[in-house]
UniProtKB/TrEMBL annotation:
The chain crosses the membrane at residues 242-263. SUPFAM superfamilies: Fibronectin type III. Gene3D superfamilies: Immunoglobulins (2.60.40.10). GO terms for cellular component: plasma membrane. Residues 1-18 form the signal peptide. It comes from Culter alburnus (Topmouth culter). Keywords: Membrane, Signal, Transmembrane, Transmembrane helix. GO terms for molecular function: interferon receptor activity. Residues 131-231 form the Fibronectin type-III domain. This is Fibronectin type-III domain-containing protein.
Amino acid sequence: MKALRCFSLLLSLSVVTALGDLSRPQNLSLQTLNTQYVLHWDWADDQQTAVNGTLTFTAQYLSVLQSRKAAHKQKWRTVCADVSERHCDFTDAGLNYWGIYYLRVRANTAQWFSSWTNISFCPDRDADLGPPSSVKLTSVKGDLEIVIADPLSSTNESMKTLAPDMHYLIQYWKKPEDYKKGKVLKTKNNVVTLSELDGSTWYCVRVQSCCDFYNKTSVFSDTHCTRTEDGKCSDCEMDYRWIFIAGVTAAVLVLAVIGYIIYKRNSKAGLIQKRDDWRDDGE
Ligand SMILES: *[C@@H]1O[C@H](CO)[C@@H](O)[C@H](O)[C@H]1NC(C)=O
Ligand SMILES: *[C@@H]1O[C@H](CO)[C@@H](O)[C@H](O)[C@H]1NC(C)=O
Ligand SMILES: *[C@@H]1O[C@H](CO)[C@@H](O)[C@H](O)[C@H]1NC(C)=O
Ligand SMILES: *[C@@H]1O[C@H](CO)[C@@H](O)[C@H](O)[C@H]1NC(C)=O
Ligand SMILES: *[C@@H]1O[C@H](CO)[C@@H](O)[C@H](O)[C@H]1NC(C)=O
């Protein structure tokens, strides 16, 4: 069928030029997130009026390794066949994250098809990295604990398995201020404790995923805010009880010492008084 169409195209080349060649898709671009890849393209609309029958598009891919083979040995795989939309979802096409591919698209009508337009695509290099799939913030004993869930692939696999250099940048700041006055923490961990914070203070946190190799950074996660607990004591009720006991003990001790001193003084004064009395008696 394809061969036949090609053959007829060759035969009617003069007719094609006479009718105006079916223009090829333009401006190929990929909209990507983790392992979701959607190819978009434009097509010159002004031509559509001249084209009879429905206009459709066909999108295919080929690995770069395959592209080095002779043209007749290249096995382009079709992902979208004769679709009317101007985009094609390659997410489930089975592209290897570390592979390099050509993606191509052409326009078709009942009679004609355009030539192909291609774009090269390497998911590892080109696909956007997503923010953490979730961020949880809790106030624990005056510290803040952040639990970060990795961004996920389209098969719910952690993106860390595909991009092992992935890490997080955590931005945190005090509530009335904004993030520009905050601090940034770089980590590979999924559970992070922020300590040395002010007590009874609202803090906000947001997290970004990053990969250094291709210098990728995701958008930020949603901002989460919570209030730190009072002071730094681990169990405040317990601490207050101890402070009370220590205070009472100290007070009792001080009173005892003062009492003793007063008693000593009084008894000394008494002795002197007694001696004086005795002297008076003697004279
Ligand atoms: C391709 O993109 C350029 C620049 O954005 C635009 O001017 C042009 O109209 C686009 N082509 C089509 C067919 O839409
Ligand atoms: C397109 O179809 C219309 C009728 O639907 C016909 O009048 C016209 O001649 C056709 N144009 C071309 C270029 O085939
Ligand atoms: C991709 O397009 C470019 C320019 O249009 C062309 O030189 C190249 O051969 C094409 N590659 C493949 C694999 O079709
Ligand atoms: C991934 O997880 C979400 C939510 O847990 C679920 O709805 C979806 O079906 C999962 N997808 C796959 C491919 O396992
Ligand atoms: C990495 O990207 C950031 C922002 O996107 C940019 O400021 C920085 O210069 C880039 N670094 C390298 C080595 O490309």
